[in-house]
């Protein structure tokens, strides 16, 4: 759990919103 340093809370929030919209998550 050290990748959070590179990811900002804003980016996490945007990803969460995209997933909530029903978009497929990149994997």
Which tags fit this structure?
1 helix, single chain, flat, mainly alpha, about 0% strand, about 25 residues
Describe this structure in words.
- By secondary structure, this protein is mainly alpha-helical.
- It has one domain.
- It contains 1 helix and no strands.
- The longest helix is centred in the middle third of the chain and has 13 residues.
- It is flat.
- The two termini are 18 Å apart.
- The mean pLDDT is 76.
- This is IS630 family transposase.
- It comes from Natrarchaeobius chitinivorans.
Reconstruct the topology from this structure.
Layout: H1 9-21
Organism: Natrarchaeobius chitinivorans
Protein name: IS630 family transposase
> Nearest-angstrom radius of gyration?
10 Å
Secondary-structure class = mainly alpha
The coarse overall form would be: flat
Number of helical runs? 1
- According to DSSP, the number of beta strands is 0
- Low-confidence blocks of residues: none
Please tell me the overall pLDDT. Answer: 76
The N- and C-terminal alpha carbons lie at a distance of: 18 Å
Percent helix, as a range, is 40-55%
Order of helices and strands: H
Major β-sheet profile: none
The amount of beta strand, in percent, is under 5%
Number of domains: 1
């Amino acid at each position: 759990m050290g990748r959070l340093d590179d990811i900002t809370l804003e980016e996490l929030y945007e990803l969460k919103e995209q997933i909530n919209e029903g978009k497929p998550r990149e994997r």
